[in-house]
Specification:
- The complex is a heterodimer of chains A (178) and B (158).
- Chain A is of the alpha/beta class.
- Chain A has one domain (31-176): Glutaredoxin (3-Layer(aba) Sandwich), CATH 3.40.30.10.
- Helices cover 38% and strands 19% of the residues of chain A.
- By secondary structure, chain B is mainly α.
- Chain B has 2 domains: 2-93, Orthogonal Bundle (Helicase, Ruva Protein, domain 3); 104-157, no CATH class.
- Chain B contains 6 helices and no strands.
- The chains are: A alpha/beta (178), B mainly alpha (158).
- Chain A binds chain B through residues 28-29, 31-35, 99, 125, 129-132, 134-135, and chain B through 46-47, 49, 59-60, 63-64, 67, 86-92.
Chain lengths: 178, 158
Amino acid sequence: MKRWIMVVPLAVFLLMAVFLYKGLFLKPDELPSAMIGKPFPAFSLASTQGDRNLTQADLIGRPALVNVWATWCPSCKVEHPYLNQLAQQGVVIHGINYKDDNAAAVKWLAEFHNPYQLDIRDEQGSLGLDLGVYGAPETFLIDAKGIIRYKHVGIVDATVWREQLAPLYQGLVDEAKP
Amino acid sequence: MKRWLAAAVLGLSVAGMARAAIDTYQFRDDAERERYQQLTKELRCPKCQNQDIADSNAPIAADLRREIFRMLGEGKSNQQIVDFMVDRYGDFVRYKPALSGRTWLLWFGPGILLVGGFVALAVIVRRRRVPAAQGSHELSVEERERLAKLLDKEQNHD
Protein backbone atom coordinates (compact mmCIF):
# COMPACT_ATOMS: atom_id res chain seq x y z
CA MET A 1 0.00 0.00 0.00
CA LYS A 2 1.35 3.37 -0.95
CA ARG A 3 1.53 5.45 2.16
CA TRP A 4 1.53 8.82 0.43
CA ILE A 5 -1.96 8.33 -0.91
CA MET A 6 -3.28 8.56 2.64
CA VAL A 7 -1.98 12.13 2.87
CA VAL A 8 -3.96 13.25 -0.19
CA PRO A 9 -7.30 13.90 1.61
CA LEU A 10 -5.51 15.92 4.28
CA ALA A 11 -3.65 17.91 1.64
CA VAL A 12 -6.87 18.59 -0.27
CA PHE A 13 -8.56 19.63 2.95
CA LEU A 14 -5.75 22.00 3.89
CA LEU A 15 -5.72 23.55 0.43
CA MET A 16 -9.47 24.11 0.56
CA ALA A 17 -9.24 25.46 4.10
CA VAL A 18 -6.70 28.06 3.02
CA PHE A 19 -8.89 29.25 0.13
CA LEU A 20 -12.10 29.24 2.15
CA TYR A 21 -10.42 31.08 5.02
CA LYS A 22 -9.21 33.74 2.62
CA GLY A 23 -12.70 33.85 1.15
CA LEU A 24 -14.08 34.93 4.51
CA PHE A 25 -12.31 38.25 4.20
CA LEU A 26 -12.94 38.97 0.55
CA LYS A 27 -15.28 41.78 -0.34
CA PRO A 28 -16.71 40.77 -3.67
CA ASP A 29 -18.94 43.84 -3.83
CA GLU A 30 -15.90 46.10 -3.96
CA LEU A 31 -14.55 45.95 -7.46
CA PRO A 32 -10.97 46.86 -8.16
CA SER A 33 -11.15 49.99 -10.25
CA ALA A 34 -10.03 49.76 -13.84
CA MET A 35 -9.23 53.48 -13.70
CA ILE A 36 -6.22 53.34 -11.38
CA GLY A 37 -3.21 54.92 -13.08
CA LYS A 38 -5.32 56.52 -15.78
CA PRO A 39 -5.89 60.25 -16.14
CA PHE A 40 -9.18 61.63 -14.90
CA PRO A 41 -11.63 61.36 -17.83
CA ALA A 42 -12.38 64.46 -19.85
CA PHE A 43 -15.61 66.24 -19.00
CA SER A 44 -17.29 69.59 -19.32
CA LEU A 45 -20.06 70.03 -16.80
CA ALA A 46 -21.66 72.83 -14.81
CA SER A 47 -21.11 73.21 -11.10
CA THR A 48 -23.93 72.25 -8.77
CA GLN A 49 -24.46 75.91 -7.97
CA GLY A 50 -24.63 76.56 -11.71
CA ASP A 51 -22.23 79.49 -11.50
CA ARG A 52 -19.42 78.07 -13.61
CA ASN A 53 -18.38 75.42 -16.07
CA LEU A 54 -15.89 72.81 -14.92
CA THR A 55 -13.53 70.59 -16.90
CA GLN A 56 -10.86 68.03 -16.04
CA ALA A 57 -8.26 70.83 -16.24
CA ASP A 58 -9.73 72.35 -13.07
CA LEU A 59 -8.73 69.24 -11.12
CA ILE A 60 -5.05 69.54 -11.97
CA GLY A 61 -2.59 71.19 -9.61
CA ARG A 62 -3.23 69.62 -6.22
CA PRO A 63 -3.81 66.08 -4.99
CA ALA A 64 -7.44 65.72 -4.01
CA LEU A 65 -10.24 63.41 -3.04
CA VAL A 66 -13.04 63.25 -5.58
CA ASN A 67 -16.21 62.16 -3.84
CA VAL A 68 -19.17 60.78 -5.80
CA TRP A 69 -22.37 61.52 -3.94
CA ALA A 70 -26.10 62.03 -4.32
CA THR A 71 -29.02 63.07 -2.16
CA TRP A 72 -30.77 59.73 -2.87
CA CYS A 73 -27.88 57.89 -1.25
CA PRO A 74 -28.31 57.31 2.50
CA SER A 75 -24.66 56.37 3.02
CA CYS A 76 -23.64 59.73 1.57
CA LYS A 77 -25.50 61.41 4.39
CA VAL A 78 -23.58 59.28 6.87
CA GLU A 79 -20.19 60.23 5.48
CA HIS A 80 -20.99 63.89 4.86
CA PRO A 81 -20.09 65.18 8.35
CA TYR A 82 -16.75 63.43 8.13
CA LEU A 83 -16.02 65.01 4.76
CA ASN A 84 -16.82 68.39 6.33
CA GLN A 85 -14.34 67.60 9.05
CA LEU A 86 -11.63 66.62 6.55
CA ALA A 87 -12.26 69.78 4.53
CA GLN A 88 -11.81 71.81 7.67
CA GLN A 89 -8.47 70.12 8.25
CA GLY A 90 -7.40 71.38 4.84
CA VAL A 91 -7.88 68.23 2.77
CA VAL A 92 -8.83 69.11 -0.81
CA ILE A 93 -12.14 67.44 -1.66
CA HIS A 94 -14.08 67.78 -4.90
CA GLY A 95 -17.60 66.51 -5.29
CA ILE A 96 -19.43 64.86 -8.16
CA ASN A 97 -23.15 65.07 -7.68
CA TYR A 98 -24.11 61.86 -9.43
CA LYS A 99 -27.48 61.37 -11.16
CA ASP A 100 -29.24 63.65 -8.78
CA ASP A 101 -31.92 66.28 -8.73
CA ASN A 102 -29.96 69.51 -8.79
CA ALA A 103 -32.34 71.51 -6.59
CA ALA A 104 -32.13 68.80 -3.93
CA ALA A 105 -28.34 68.83 -4.16
CA VAL A 106 -28.13 72.61 -3.73
CA LYS A 107 -30.45 72.40 -0.75
CA TRP A 108 -28.38 69.59 0.77
CA LEU A 109 -25.14 71.56 0.45
CA ALA A 110 -26.76 74.65 1.98
CA GLU A 111 -28.17 72.60 4.82
CA PHE A 112 -25.30 70.26 5.70
CA HIS A 113 -22.38 72.49 4.72
CA ASN A 114 -20.38 72.20 1.52
CA PRO A 115 -17.00 70.46 1.88
CA TYR A 116 -16.30 70.53 -1.87
CA GLN A 117 -13.90 72.95 -3.52
CA LEU A 118 -15.33 72.06 -6.92
CA ASP A 119 -18.81 70.61 -7.05
CA ILE A 120 -19.39 68.97 -10.39
CA ARG A 121 -22.95 68.44 -11.51
CA ASP A 122 -23.26 65.09 -13.26
CA GLU A 123 -27.00 64.86 -13.67
CA GLN A 124 -26.92 62.30 -16.48
CA GLY A 125 -24.24 60.16 -14.89
CA SER A 126 -21.98 60.52 -17.94
CA LEU A 127 -18.87 61.41 -15.94
CA GLY A 128 -19.76 58.66 -13.47
CA LEU A 129 -19.89 56.19 -16.34
CA ASP A 130 -16.48 57.29 -17.63
CA LEU A 131 -15.12 56.88 -14.10
CA GLY A 132 -16.57 53.38 -13.77
CA VAL A 133 -18.82 54.47 -10.91
CA TYR A 134 -21.46 51.88 -10.06
CA GLY A 135 -23.01 53.37 -6.97
CA ALA A 136 -22.55 56.05 -4.39
CA PRO A 137 -20.62 56.95 -2.37
CA GLU A 138 -17.33 56.29 -4.10
CA THR A 139 -14.21 58.30 -3.49
CA PHE A 140 -11.29 58.65 -5.88
CA LEU A 141 -7.86 59.90 -4.97
CA ILE A 142 -6.13 61.90 -7.71
CA ASP A 143 -2.61 63.24 -7.77
CA ALA A 144 -1.48 66.75 -8.71
CA LYS A 145 -1.34 65.77 -12.40
CA GLY A 146 -4.92 64.57 -12.35
CA ILE A 147 -4.05 60.85 -12.49
CA ILE A 148 -6.39 58.56 -10.55
CA ARG A 149 -4.35 56.75 -7.93
CA TYR A 150 -6.89 55.04 -5.70
CA LYS A 151 -10.58 54.39 -5.33
CA HIS A 152 -12.57 53.67 -2.22
CA VAL A 153 -16.06 52.21 -2.53
CA GLY A 154 -18.38 53.03 0.35
CA ILE A 155 -18.36 55.42 3.23
CA VAL A 156 -15.26 57.42 4.13
CA ASP A 157 -15.03 57.52 7.91
CA ALA A 158 -12.22 58.02 10.42
CA THR A 159 -11.01 54.42 10.08
CA VAL A 160 -10.98 54.41 6.29
CA TRP A 161 -9.24 57.78 6.26
CA ARG A 162 -6.64 56.80 8.82
CA GLU A 163 -5.88 53.37 7.43
CA GLN A 164 -6.27 53.78 3.68
CA LEU A 165 -6.64 57.28 2.35
CA ALA A 166 -4.54 59.47 4.64
CA PRO A 167 -1.18 57.74 4.00
CA LEU A 168 -1.78 57.79 0.25
CA TYR A 169 -2.99 61.39 0.28
CA GLN A 170 0.00 62.51 2.33
CA GLY A 171 2.27 60.64 -0.06
CA LEU A 172 0.78 62.48 -3.00
CA VAL A 173 1.07 65.84 -1.24
CA ASP A 174 4.75 65.13 -0.57
CA GLU A 175 5.21 63.97 -4.13
CA ALA A 176 3.71 67.20 -5.46
CA LYS A 177 6.14 69.34 -3.51
CA PRO A 178 9.20 70.27 -5.55
CA MET B 1 -68.64 37.02 -12.63
CA LYS B 2 -67.90 40.48 -11.32
CA ARG B 3 -65.19 39.07 -9.09
CA TRP B 4 -63.54 37.33 -11.99
CA LEU B 5 -63.59 40.51 -13.98
CA ALA B 6 -62.01 42.45 -11.11
CA ALA B 7 -59.33 39.80 -10.71
CA ALA B 8 -58.59 39.87 -14.43
CA VAL B 9 -58.33 43.67 -14.46
CA LEU B 10 -56.07 43.60 -11.43
CA GLY B 11 -53.90 40.91 -13.02
CA LEU B 12 -53.57 42.90 -16.22
CA SER B 13 -52.61 46.06 -14.38
CA VAL B 14 -49.90 44.18 -12.47
CA ALA B 15 -48.62 42.76 -15.73
CA GLY B 16 -48.41 46.29 -17.05
CA MET B 17 -46.33 47.35 -14.07
CA ALA B 18 -43.96 44.45 -14.55
CA ARG B 19 -43.43 45.44 -18.15
CA ALA B 20 -42.60 49.01 -17.21
CA ALA B 21 -39.12 47.94 -16.07
CA ILE B 22 -38.21 46.80 -19.58
CA ASP B 23 -36.64 49.41 -21.81
CA THR B 24 -38.19 50.12 -25.14
CA TYR B 25 -35.57 50.66 -27.79
CA GLN B 26 -36.22 50.93 -31.49
CA PHE B 27 -33.65 48.96 -33.43
CA ARG B 28 -32.91 49.47 -37.09
CA ASP B 29 -33.11 45.77 -37.87
CA ASP B 30 -33.21 42.34 -36.28
CA ALA B 31 -29.45 41.91 -36.51
CA GLU B 32 -28.94 44.97 -34.33
CA ARG B 33 -31.53 43.76 -31.85
CA GLU B 34 -29.77 40.42 -31.66
CA ARG B 35 -26.40 42.06 -31.06
CA TYR B 36 -27.97 44.18 -28.32
CA GLN B 37 -29.41 41.10 -26.66
CA GLN B 38 -26.16 39.21 -26.96
CA LEU B 39 -24.11 42.08 -25.52
CA THR B 40 -26.44 42.74 -22.60
CA LYS B 41 -26.30 39.03 -21.74
CA GLU B 42 -22.51 38.90 -21.98
CA LEU B 43 -21.89 41.90 -19.74
CA ARG B 44 -22.24 41.68 -16.02
CA CYS B 45 -23.89 44.26 -13.81
CA PRO B 46 -21.24 45.85 -11.56
CA LYS B 47 -23.76 46.52 -8.80
CA CYS B 48 -25.78 43.32 -8.58
CA GLN B 49 -23.00 41.00 -9.37
CA ASN B 50 -24.68 37.77 -10.28
CA GLN B 51 -26.87 39.25 -12.95
CA ASP B 52 -26.12 40.26 -16.49
CA ILE B 53 -27.14 43.77 -17.43
CA ALA B 54 -30.06 42.50 -19.50
CA ASP B 55 -31.53 40.95 -16.39
CA SER B 56 -30.78 43.59 -13.80
CA ASN B 57 -33.07 46.35 -12.63
CA ALA B 58 -30.26 48.37 -11.03
CA PRO B 59 -30.02 51.95 -12.34
CA ILE B 60 -26.42 51.34 -13.40
CA ALA B 61 -27.53 48.40 -15.54
CA ALA B 62 -30.14 50.61 -17.21
CA ASP B 63 -27.41 53.19 -17.89
CA LEU B 64 -25.15 50.56 -19.41
CA ARG B 65 -27.98 49.24 -21.59
CA ARG B 66 -28.58 52.77 -22.82
CA GLU B 67 -24.86 53.17 -23.59
CA ILE B 68 -24.84 49.91 -25.53
CA PHE B 69 -27.88 51.01 -27.51
CA ARG B 70 -26.22 54.36 -28.24
CA MET B 71 -22.97 52.73 -29.36
CA LEU B 72 -24.83 50.26 -31.57
CA GLY B 73 -26.52 53.25 -33.18
CA GLU B 74 -23.10 54.78 -33.79
CA GLY B 75 -22.09 51.63 -35.63
CA LYS B 76 -19.51 50.43 -33.13
CA SER B 77 -18.44 46.80 -33.25
CA ASN B 78 -19.13 44.33 -30.44
CA GLN B 79 -15.45 44.34 -29.57
CA GLN B 80 -15.38 48.14 -29.28
CA ILE B 81 -18.41 48.10 -27.01
CA VAL B 82 -16.97 45.41 -24.75
CA ASP B 83 -13.65 47.30 -24.63
CA PHE B 84 -15.50 50.48 -23.65
CA MET B 85 -17.02 48.67 -20.67
CA VAL B 86 -13.80 46.92 -19.68
CA ASP B 87 -11.90 50.25 -19.78
CA ARG B 88 -14.28 51.61 -17.16
CA TYR B 89 -15.31 48.64 -15.06
CA GLY B 90 -12.45 46.21 -15.56
CA ASP B 91 -12.42 42.58 -16.72
CA PHE B 92 -15.01 41.94 -14.06
CA VAL B 93 -17.87 43.02 -16.33
CA ARG B 94 -17.23 40.26 -18.85
CA TYR B 95 -19.14 37.08 -18.32
CA LYS B 96 -17.05 35.72 -21.16
CA PRO B 97 -13.51 36.65 -20.12
CA ALA B 98 -10.85 37.32 -22.73
CA LEU B 99 -8.30 34.56 -23.24
CA SER B 100 -5.09 35.78 -21.64
CA GLY B 101 -2.26 34.66 -19.38
CA ARG B 102 -4.37 35.36 -16.35
CA THR B 103 -7.49 33.58 -17.57
CA TRP B 104 -6.17 30.48 -19.33
CA LEU B 105 -6.74 28.37 -16.23
CA LEU B 106 -10.34 29.55 -16.17
CA TRP B 107 -10.82 28.54 -19.77
CA PHE B 108 -8.92 25.27 -19.81
CA GLY B 109 -9.05 24.25 -16.13
CA PRO B 110 -12.29 22.25 -16.47
CA GLY B 111 -10.96 20.46 -19.57
CA ILE B 112 -7.70 19.67 -17.82
CA LEU B 113 -9.59 18.34 -14.79
CA LEU B 114 -11.78 16.19 -17.02
CA VAL B 115 -8.84 14.71 -18.89
CA GLY B 116 -7.02 14.19 -15.57
CA GLY B 117 -10.07 12.38 -14.23
CA PHE B 118 -10.21 10.05 -17.22
CA VAL B 119 -6.50 9.31 -16.92
CA ALA B 120 -6.88 8.51 -13.22
CA LEU B 121 -9.88 6.33 -13.99
CA ALA B 122 -8.00 4.45 -16.73
CA VAL B 123 -5.04 3.85 -14.40
CA ILE B 124 -7.25 2.55 -11.59
CA VAL B 125 -9.24 0.26 -13.87
CA ARG B 126 -6.05 -1.17 -15.35
CA ARG B 127 -4.48 -1.86 -11.98
CA ARG B 128 -7.54 -3.73 -10.84
CA ARG B 129 -7.79 -5.77 -13.96
CA VAL B 130 -4.20 -7.07 -13.99
CA PRO B 131 -4.29 -9.12 -10.74
CA ALA B 132 -7.73 -10.39 -11.62
CA ALA B 133 -6.44 -11.86 -14.85
CA GLN B 134 -3.41 -13.44 -13.20
CA GLY B 135 -4.85 -14.99 -10.07
CA SER B 136 -7.77 -17.39 -10.19
CA HIS B 137 -10.87 -17.14 -8.08
CA GLU B 138 -11.41 -20.87 -8.29
CA LEU B 139 -10.78 -22.70 -5.03
CA SER B 140 -8.32 -25.54 -4.93
CA VAL B 141 -9.43 -28.99 -3.82
CA GLU B 142 -7.97 -28.55 -0.35
CA GLU B 143 -9.63 -25.20 0.08
CA ARG B 144 -12.95 -26.65 -0.94
CA GLU B 145 -12.67 -29.44 1.62
CA ARG B 146 -11.80 -26.94 4.31
CA LEU B 147 -14.75 -24.80 3.34
CA ALA B 148 -17.09 -27.79 3.50
CA LYS B 149 -15.83 -28.63 6.98
CA LEU B 150 -16.30 -25.10 8.18
CA LEU B 151 -19.81 -24.97 6.80
CA ASP B 152 -20.59 -28.29 8.44
CA LYS B 153 -19.46 -26.97 11.76
CA GLU B 154 -21.67 -23.92 11.38
CA GLN B 155 -24.71 -26.06 10.63
CA ASN B 156 -24.03 -28.39 13.57
CA HIS B 157 -23.96 -25.45 15.90
CA ASP B 158 -27.42 -24.37 14.91
